[in-house]
Amino acid sequence: MPRDESGILSEIKKGYIIRQLQEGKRGDGRTLEQFREATIKIDYIKRAAGSAYVELGKTKIVAGIKVEAGSPFADTPNQGVLTTNVEFLPMAFPTFESGPPNEASIEVARVVDRGIRESKMIDIQALVIEPAVKVWIVFVDIDVIDYDGNLIDACTLGAVAALRSAVVSGSVVGKEDFKLPVRNTPVSVTMVKIGENIVVDPDLEEEQISSGRITVTTSEDGRLKAMQKGTTGSFTLDEIKKAISTSINVGKHLREKHLS
Amino acid sequence: MPRDESGILSEIKKGYIIRQLQEGKRGDGRTLEQFREATIKIDYIKRAAGSAYVELGKTKIVAGIKVEAGSPFADTPNQGVLTTNVEFLPMAFPTFESGPPNEASIEVARVVDRGIRESKMIDIQALVIEPAVKVWIVFVDIDVIDYDGNLIDACTLGAVAALRSAVVSGSVVGKEDFKLPVRNTPVSVTMVKIGENIVVDPDLEEEQISSGRITVTTSEDGRLKAMQKGTTGSFTLDEIKKAISTSINVGKHLREKHLS
Amino acid sequence: MPRDESGILSEIKKGYIIRQLQEGKRGDGRTLEQFREATIKIDYIKRAAGSAYVELGKTKIVAGIKVEAGSPFADTPNQGVLTTNVEFLPMAFPTFESGPPNEASIEVARVVDRGIRESKMIDIQALVIEPAVKVWIVFVDIDVIDYDGNLIDACTLGAVAALRSAVVSGSVVGKEDFKLPVRNTPVSVTMVKIGENIVVDPDLEEEQISSGRITVTTSEDGRLKAMQKGTTGSFTLDEIKKAISTSINVGKHLREKHLS
Amino acid sequence: MGTQSDIKLIEENGLRLDGRNPGDLRPIKIEAGVLNRADGSALIEWGGNKVLVSVYGPREAYPKHNQDINKAIVKARYNMAAFSVDERKRPGPDRRSIEISKVLSEALESAIMVEQFPRAQIDVFIEVLQADAGTRIAGLTAAAVAIADAGIPMRDFVTGCTAGKVNDKVVLDLSKEEDNFGQADLPIAILPKSKKIVLLQMDGDLSLEEFDTATSMIINAISRINEIQRNALSAKVKVDDAGGE
Amino acid sequence: MGTQSDIKLIEENGLRLDGRNPGDLRPIKIEAGVLNRADGSALIEWGGNKVLVSVYGPREAYPKHNQDINKAIVKARYNMAAFSVDERKRPGPDRRSIEISKVLSEALESAIMVEQFPRAQIDVFIEVLQADAGTRIAGLTAAAVAIADAGIPMRDFVTGCTAGKVNDKVVLDLSKEEDNFGQADLPIAILPKSKKIVLLQMDGDLSLEEFDTATSMIINAISRINEIQRNALSAKVKVDDAGGE
Amino acid sequence: MGTQSDIKLIEENGLRLDGRNPGDLRPIKIEAGVLNRADGSALIEWGGNKVLVSVYGPREAYPKHNQDINKAIVKARYNMAAFSVDERKRPGPDRRSIEISKVLSEALESAIMVEQFPRAQIDVFIEVLQADAGTRIAGLTAAAVAIADAGIPMRDFVTGCTAGKVNDKVVLDLSKEEDNFGQADLPIAILPKSKKIVLLQMDGDLSLEEFDTATSMIINAISRINEIQRNALSAKVKVDDAGGE
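Structure tokens for the assembled complex are given below, as produced in the milestone run.
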């Protein structure tokens, strides 16, 4: 994660934020468990099979789905292929650089990917054109265009919304167009620890003073599908359990509001 | 383009050159529309299908053609493939560096390529071995070995001369050797603006003090096939139109002298 | 080769080492033609077809053999493929860096490879599954994990020991497991020149003050199969001839002790 | 340019496949200040193109040995999103985007008052979200708005437009089909006040007369496009004045 | 996780294919100080895993603009040897190893007293010589020993263990088959004194109850594993005292 | 070396396929000062080889942390042009050219008075325009001329030659066919005054006696080749004196 541009967020400000949190208040007036306002526009990119533009507070991403015919992996001849890539565009933040994905963007992509994959959101067994020879390859590509914290959740929201709306052009293999076979709707909820408090959906300022990040992705039935603790810092087991409960609750709300 | 090694060509010298140009004189005695002496030796590299060594003043390049059997592009199954690559060898100039092509050498390669491609110099429809399966791939590779300005024209001259002389070894596909099917002879003419003057075929010193470069590639019948304005600086529309006329005239002369 | 970390091994120490060598003594008590103690453990990596852990003094490497079915080279349709790669792991020395192989590790890999290849140690004609279509590809991969001089000989020892013990799993092509067809046992012996003396199997300290390195790889019948002079410095022809004799003698001893 | 020039791209009534007259532009919409983090930004929708531009700077050029003691370096980076074209575009720069980045950088540097910012760098990131012919010109036109939005002083706007030739007829602002199957493509960018040309590329086949017709069409269109650019900025200013963000 | 969850991984008698009970660890052996050149090192054999770790530092961070004026940077690099897995692994980092390197760096930094070494860098090189499920946790567990062997002060050890789910049953320390065909994988690393969690990843399918069972198993195992870590260090100390190296 | 040693490369009359005796060299021609921009340059034609060498330096070594405070770094870069070999060579260094660059750099550094130029770098760019067996030796032999042409002081020339074995017979200066189908290849470079060996590589199969024969042949040829090197330089000097360039 990029550092605060001015070096370090002043210790004074940090102390102030922590004291406010102890009273249950956040800088933008949210409660500790409250997500920022999210806006999702699907079909934002007509040329893609599915797409979504997501604003999560001031964080903005564009997710696009491409589906192409290709070879299956040798060890999974009867499955389609799902691949997720996240680009931290240099336009999104002063210190993001052009070039191949770095460890931060790879982590985001892999956590988003695990949520989709492990929830079995897409029925990849249904994406076989000719077993062992030709399958559908689903490319989930995400452009991060404006960064103000919590990319994992913004990207998961965008990827899931785009996949849900995706229509595959079957003409290249002489078939009819069809909707991607969607079976589940995973939602990730990310929290960070600031002082002794855990807050949901951190903005950039909160990320910068936090010590420890935890993401919990759940499926429609409230089961755990993927988790990722990230950044330095630590959690107690009780904190993790509490985070799981929060994720189930908040995730349910997000799913109802944005993905149904 | 590399900067003047000593930092900046002294302002005094620059002023002198501009004043001379206003009187229609160039440092080496040429008129504004005059090309430098060019020498082209074809068949310079016996191992290539075609080749040319070009001296344009003190600028020197070697162009070599390789023709190999390979797969066509999926969207053009009934066409051969033409590809142009230019290497700014570090031997050619103190600040040229080893490594993958940079933006300057890519620009030169692409402008050379467009002139050849758009003039339909090579009949790529005639380069099919088996439709959709196997076609001839024509590699135009150019080594820049000594740099004293105007690489686009030196490289176009070399590429065109090498292609015109190229003989393809058909033995790898059980056929007779044959000459590359050449249908046209494009010539590029590059000009730069120095003060209010436009000069043809700039040497390095002229390039360094110029503001704006324009290349016009024409075919045998004097039609426009490719143009490229490059470097910072600007032209009026009238200047561009005058440059086009110059290119047609100078190009005709070059074609007669070197490529017939 | 990495430089002495403290800049330069003190000139005093260097002079001392050279004077000692003139009396036929080395820092660790060896004679000039004496190898360091070597330990070779084969089958160190169960998951590999063959493997060896080698300690040569304090230099340590791990060699592993993988054998996979793949395509032959177009110009050798009736041969298997042998490929050797050496990784100078950053764990092995303070200045070794992560990243693609550099010129030092490529040189070691290529000298090891030439010894194996030119001695015809592996009968690559016997590694054809289906001519021109499918052959066995033998990957020799070597991890350098602790560096204290003379990597060429440590890596050759490890590669040869691993290859000698390798068993190929034939199941992937419906065949029985079989031992790699080993026909010869090459041994490399590396020497460096320090002052006027030539010493066998230099440790790092000796490498750092040496001027000129020579490696001679011989086969079981004492013939030359590969040689490589490396680093700056020079040898007289007589010194080279003496180095060849030494390699034959020392190589014979090493082969008997470690590879029989 | 495409090789199949026998495809019918102009109807008997003289109209193009999308109903435009030869001299008509596609719809153009520009919004300034669409991003929060960047110093300046703009989103342009031009026909089916959707191109986002953000600007950072002037900031200290890095690495330092690249600094120019006399002026700011302008570094435009043109990039196509993986999902922007029919066949997925592999991430990372290819030769085409490297060339485009170069000519866009040079065109913008010709307009920016770079001499006011020695040792600095101005980064212009151009992301093609959806491509529909003319992306470089759309990106450049939006870039000028984003640079103005960043408060970076320019001598003049930079405004671009494309002309081309289809079915032997010169037309303005090629559509995707016209670009794929047409006979010539001529992207130009102009400083609208001085009418100076700062970007010009051409490929295909044009006679001198056709070139004249094409450039007349472009120059005619430039003032309309520049108005859209200026409107985008004043709309942004109004929002800012009204207490936006 | 694998898709074929119908493969039988637990026998009728409740034992796993390798004869272990659900809560059993595979054999673990750690040796400290196995390398000469590194500042600290350790070799761990955990089931069929063989992972070598070396540590260099604290040394000056390079390049300098990466230095943190308040603390040392911890840079773990996880790498799989070409011969470590069934199908030859192409040399060089892939996306998986880059992610693992990141979470391991963060876990280790949470334990090391990094504030004692401003501007410094601590490099932890983790080479998987033989892979058999649970390599990241094996590497992390050995890394803590190697760091201690290098004399770098830590607040606490870092000790890792994995749990998972196979045939709908929660089990400790997945084997390779269990990892390939199981239903969930949950690697965790803990500071054994404070019980703080510094690494946690999960994929597959777990209910809240299954998560509770899994974490109980792991916390129970952590103290046993930490004892093996501590024994490795004291064995090394004894060898050192006895005049070794 | 090739695997088909049963191909007939020596005729009954003892002559080689190109009519040479075993100890004969192919024709060699060297021209110095062929490039304008470089500090020194040379073009060598050796049999069908055509290799161009240019030299820059001594100039300040960059990046600075690579500088050696005691001497100049010599950096030779051997590169094959895409069109230099039968099958097009993909641009960029491969493992073979990286190894060759290393041994050529070391051979040249052994001859150059590097201690006169602390902190400096001498770049030697070797471009193989046409390859016909023995390119590294041809390049090295031309490099010595180019270095002298640049006015860089050398202890001695560097002069190279190759011997090999075909049809069980030792021969000098392998041709392409002899290199492809021969039994051994032995490139050597020597400082001709002191007879010191600064480059030596060998692969294939040689007995000690065959090695002796091969090295005798090479040492015999070296003085002839060195004469060609010296003539190239004095021809250049004459041209320069006559007012060339």
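Chain F has one domain: 28-244. The first strand of chain F starts at residue 28 and ends at 32. Further analysis is deferred to the final report.
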